[in-house]
Amino acid sequence: MSKKMRWVGWGTLLALLALNNGCTTPTQPAELLQLSPESSQNRAMQIRVFETSNENELLSASAAVLQDLGLQIEESVRQMGFLRATKERSAREYGQDFSRFFMGLLSLGNFRMPVDLHQKIAAVLIARPINQDGTKHEVRIMFYRVVWQGDGQADRQYIPPGEQKMEMIRDPLIYQEFFFKLSKAVFLEAFTI
Hints:
Elements: H1 3-23, H2 39-46, E1 47-51, H3 55-68, E2 72-77, E3 82-90, H4 96-106, E4 111-112, E5 116-129, E6 136-149, E7 152-154, E8 157-159, E9 164-168, H5 172-186, E10 190-191
Antiparallel strand pairs: 1-6, 1-10, 2-3, 3-5, 4-7, 5-6, 6-9, 7-8
């Protein structure tokens, strides 16, 4: 058998193995689709029911409250009852630089902790009628933030600047403040489900 034929044989074998690997379906861990124990608490914190038949007034009041909290409306789809608002802030927290210095000192320079530099706080709001005659509306708001970090290092692995992480904001006071202001804005009492 010639060298060229052997290379074709190996190439065909490698191609078949690659195709075989591409056809397999990845298995998902069972816990991937499981709800966490705090899911129902988060949902209860994010949702209120308002007795009103005027969805436009409810959305306008929601937009005004978000702006009052310092966020700017970036996207609004009234037909869907959808609002998205954001604001950008510094993410630096007191003590981050000291922690970074001492971790570097204790690890003899093998570890440099990345620090949070910048964050974008966002709110997504959905209002929808929950009964046939449209006199009750459910308002759900979710606050989250995207944080960009400065550079860091763990042993020989360099963490480049600009790496980001996204996390839900789960502080109940933020949600309570939003719904309190929204209740005052539409002169209605909000009901927790």
